[in-house]
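ESCALATION

Customer reports they have been waiting on this structure for their group meeting. Please prioritize. Original submission:
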Amino acid sequence: MSKFYSKSTNGFYDEDLHGTAVPTDAVKITEDTYHSIMIGQAKGKTLTSDKDGQPVLSAPVSQADKPAITDGRDQQRYLASTDWYVLRLVETAQAIPPDVVAKRKAARDAISTINQQKPGNRPNA
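Update from on-call: job pushed to the front of the queue and completed.
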């Protein structure tokens, strides 16, 4: 049972489970590396990769780097300014940097929270 990590998908693959569906850029990793990364992620670390495509853990995105909850316009601008990463992913399969993925998720979550707090969107309002 061999484990692999793919930089392009920022994900793990198991040869027995995924067979030939393992991405071509995947690198073989040890069980110890896999388990260490799982433990690190459980402690809040962020999964990224080094220049050789090996998985590495880095410090999580700080609260200060996340878009603040306001009226949603800042978050919408941030999403619009980073939409090109999504297009690049679709057209070339080049991964979106993990910090951009995290910030885009935070922006979408903030917009969702703002929309839920609007008077017309509250349950029993």
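Sent to customer with the following note: The first strand starts at residue 3 and ends at 6.
Escalation resolved.
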